[in-house]
From TrEMBL:
<keyword id="KW-0813">Transport</keyword>
<feature type="binding site" description="covalent">
    <location>
        <position position="233"/>
    </location>
    <ligand>
        <name>heme c 2</name>
    </ligand>
</feature>
<dbReference type="Pfam" id="PF00034">
    <property type="entry name" value="Cytochrom_C"/>
</dbReference>
<keyword id="KW-0677">Repeat</keyword>
<feature type="domain" description="Cytochrome c">
    <location>
        <begin position="215"/>
        <end position="324"/>
    </location>
</feature>
<feature type="domain" description="Cytochrome c">
    <location>
        <begin position="353"/>
        <end position="444"/>
    </location>
</feature>
<feature type="binding site" description="covalent">
    <location>
        <position position="366"/>
    </location>
    <ligand>
        <name>heme c 3</name>
    </ligand>
</feature>
<keyword id="KW-0812">Transmembrane</keyword>
<feature type="binding site" description="covalent">
    <location>
        <position position="369"/>
    </location>
    <ligand>
        <name>heme c 3</name>
    </ligand>
</feature>
<dbReference type="GO" id="GO:0016614">
    <property type="term" value="F:oxidoreductase activity, acting on CH-OH group of donors"/>
</dbReference>
<dbReference type="GO" id="GO:0005886">
    <property type="term" value="C:plasma membrane"/>
</dbReference>
<feature type="binding site" description="axial binding residue">
    <location>
        <position position="88"/>
    </location>
    <ligand>
        <name>heme c 1</name>
    </ligand>
</feature>
<dbReference type="GO" id="GO:0005506">
    <property type="term" value="F:iron ion binding"/>
</dbReference>
<dbReference type="InterPro" id="IPR036909">
    <property type="entry name" value="Cyt_c-like_dom_sf"/>
</dbReference>
<dbReference type="InterPro" id="IPR051459">
    <property type="entry name" value="Cytochrome_c-type_DH"/>
</dbReference>
<keyword id="KW-0732">Signal</keyword>
<dbReference type="InterPro" id="IPR009056">
    <property type="entry name" value="Cyt_c-like_dom"/>
</dbReference>
Length: 464
């Protein structure tokens, strides 16, 4: 019988390496479980702390049959607050059936069907399944949900509000539709890795009111930090695509659009806006003399914020006013730039244009609505064509939103107006779009802002 060979140094090293990796994984898992248990222990009692002034809840319990119609009505309001339709509707003929593509640095996600269809939707989900998804980011089968679904914010919603949303979704027409499969690169298609993402970027637990603040402020905090999930667009992200909590509401880029700073800094944010202007922007998409909503924000206004109650309008305003101002080096407000054009039109008369000319292109494509002076047409009427002077888009340090508006136009339907600006992306080349944008920023906005045709091409390529 041959004696077995003694293990070599290489074998010992391999065994030690495997043991070390196993120990590291076990420790990471143990830390996560300890963190999860600790947060669970802290958060459970909060759901039982019914604070109507902050949460805006009615006295009826979710299982009270007599209160069911009122519960569904409340759930519809809260679903609008969360703008569920925006992400979960790819085709207007299939509302809430999902399928909308969301591009991320790691690949493409498709939103799920949340109609009560039993096969392709959430018809077989229990209330507990739904609540676990909203509060913990875990699906019915125990799979971890990708944080493109903002459970990081939704976790703060009370059980009562989550169940109200669930009650409303149960009343929708079931739509049998299976969205496409996600297109994520390895290893980002491994859902179990989200355990580690959550460890660094997710604090599970319900909203806790600040006893030192007013009920109005706390109600605004509950909405903004929870169902309205404003941070998801207006807060910069770290390398893991988690939110940078130290730069809350200071602005970020989404699909080529800049979600501007909404801290109360007077130069960089909304500190120079009146409460009336801020409420008007949330409800109509227009803050006269400041801004007009376009791109993703126009969707938010159309699908969500225009339906806010007067109480919630004031609460959100109060909360945003109470945040830490973030200047980010900005010393002059975006809406303070610009002057009317005086003689550009007359200068062009009889002139021979031999190259791409921003002034000529502006007069040909934009002046009929925005006036050749840039002052707009219609003053402050609901259907007015906005002034390009004292406009936060033309006065921004980057002309990206101006460029995206030229490329994609504006479509915003509210109770007060149906606003439409045509898209010029199919009509104008990258050189022409750049020429118009540079003319507008130089004449009506921040003259330091400029864009190249190659940068226009990059923005044009951004999936919308």
């Amino acid at each position: 019988m041959n004696a077995s060979k003694p293990p070599t140094d290489r074998t010992h090293r391999a065994q030690r390496t495997r043991a070390t990796l196993a120990a590291m994984l076990f420790c990471a898992f143990a830390l996560y479980m300890a963190w999860h248990a600790a947060h669970d222990g802290e958060s459970r009692p909060v759901d039982e702390m019914l604070l109507p002034a902050a949460h805006g809840e009615g006295p009826a319990a979710p299982d009270d049959a007599a209160a069911r119609p009122e519960l569904v009505k409340r759930g519809e309001y809260l679903a609008r607050m969360g703008d569920c339709a925006a992400c979960h509707t790819a085709d207007a003929s299939r509302p809430f059936a999902g399928g909308r593509a969301i591009s991320t640095p790691f690949g493409k996600l498709y939103t799920p069907n949340i109609t009560p269809d039993p096969d392709t939707g959430i018809g077989q989900w229990s209330d507990s399944d739904f609540m676990r998804a909203m509060h913990e980011g875990v699906g019915k089968g125990g799979e971890r949900l990708y944080p493109a679904f903002p459970y990081v914010e939704f976790t703060r919603a009370t059980e009562q509000d989550v169940l109200a949303i669930r009650a409303y979704l149960n009343t929708l027409a079931p739509i049998h539709y299976k969205p496409p499969a996600n297109e994520l690169r390895f290893p980002f298609n491994q859902r179990w890795l989200l355990m580690f993402w959550n460890l660094f970027n997710f604090d599970e637990g319900r909203f806790v009111p600040d006893p030192k603040k007013s009920a109005e402020y706390n109600r605004g905090a509950y909405l903004v930090k929870g169902l309205a999930h404003c941070e998801e667009c207006h807060t910069p992200r770290n390398f893991m695509q988690g939110l940078k909590s130290g730069e809350r509401f200071s602005g970020a880029t989404q699909a080529g659009w800049q979600a501007y700073n909404i801290t109360p800094d007077r130069a960089a944010g909304i500190g120079g806006w009146s409460d009336e202007a801020l409420v008007s922007y949330l409800v109509t998409g227009v803050a006269v003399g400041h801004a007009n909503a376009a791109g993703p924000m126009a969707e938010v206004v159309q699908n969500s914020t225009q339906y806010l109650s007067a109480e919630d309008q004031r609460s959100i305003t109060a909360y945003l006013r109470g945040q830490r101002p973030v200047a980010g080096g900005v010393t002059r407000s975006r809406d303070s730039y610009g002057k009317p054009a005086n003689d550009d039109v007359t200068t062009l008369r009889g002139a021979t244009i031999t190259s791409v000319n921003g002034a000529q292109l502006f007069v040909a494509n934009c002046a009929s609505c925005h006036n050749w002076t840039g002052a707009g047409v219609g003053a402050s009427a609901p259907l007015a064509y906005p002034s390009l002077i004292h406009n936060s888009v033309t006065g921004a340090p980057s002309p990206s939103n101006l460029t995206m508006t030229i490329l994609h136009g504006v479509q915003r339907q509210t109770k007060s107006a149906d606003v439409l600006m045509p898209a010029f992306g199919s009509e104008l080349s990258n050189d022409q779009v750049a020429a118009i944008a540079n003319y507008v920023t130089k004449q009506f906005g921040d003259p330091r802002a400029s864009i190249t045709p190659d940068e226009v091409a990059a923005l044009r390529a951004q999936p919308q």
